[in-house]
Amino acid sequence: MTAPAARYTLEYRLRNHDLPDPSRPVEVHASAEEVAGFARDGYLVREQLFEGRQLDRLRAALDAVVAVESRDAGAERGRDRRFGGLFLRHLMDKHPDFLDLLAYQPLLSVARAMLGPQVQVRGLSARVTNPGQPGQETHWHFHQRLIPDPVPPFFSRPQTIDALIYLDDADDRNGPLLVVPGSHQRTDEDLPAGEYGDLPDQVTLRLPAGSVAMCHGALWHRAMPNTAEGTVRRLLLLGYGPTWMKQSIYGTRPEDGLTTRLLESADAETRELLGVAGYM
Q1: Distance separating alpha carbons of residues 162 and 158, to the nearest angstrom
Q2: What is the DSSP letter of 183?
Q3: pTM of the model
Q4: Model confidence pLDDT, tens digit, residues 211-244
Q5: DSSP structure string for 221-264
Q6: Residue 263 CB burial class (10 angstroms; 0-12, 13-18, ≥19)
Q7: What is the SS3 string spanning 130-187?
Q8: Domains (ranges, CATH) in the chain?
């Protein structure tokens, strides 16, 4: 794993008279300038954050879940051009190696720098695309929930972060990621559905395997197609949000999943990360 060298500490304090210790320091695995750039542009890239054995473990874990769910018809297949490929949900409940991502500081600490100290993991999903198949690109879209027009006086904008973890190269053959910097702040503009063309100010992110693109949930982005000359492209989507938000609505959580068992003896931080504490 190649961790960024720059770090700094955020000295958070929770304003709550019921807490005996309101201090919540966070050692951020980024520089203050990178955090400011994330706020401005809506995304932050970590090239080859996962390498070697760590990357191999994630690939093997996802392949194992794909094998089971493809056999049992548990995987979700995209049926239209906008979102093709194979989708898998609630991965932390389905393979123990994915639990390593629950409190993974190179990503979690950045999420806390952007969202505050009280953060939960909203879900871990995957999308798998194969070379030369139809519907392997996506249209321009964002993951954020809609914002009403006009905005009410007490409206609380939902702020989320998605860490796109590329287990394979996202290059011109496998399909890079396109983003529009700053688009997460364009809350008074409509993004048309079914748009595949170039947009002004778009940026192409060509990322080697093991890289991560952390994106604000409202960032306009799209995945380019996996070409016939490419390879399988396995992508993990690790979502973060404030502890008081609902978790991902997609997929059906296993009744006796791994996180359910983990909660039986979980400490306070783990309970918060799993969304059952930290919202009062």
Answers
A1: 13
A2: G
A3: 0.94
A4: 999 999 999 999 999 999 999 999 999 999 999 9
A5: EEEPP--TT---EEEEEEEEEETTS----SS---TT-HHHHHHT
A6: middle
A7: CCCCCCCCECCECCCCCCCCCCCCCCCCCCCEEEEEECCCECCCCCCEEECCCHHHCC
A8: 32-143+158-273 (2.60.120.620)
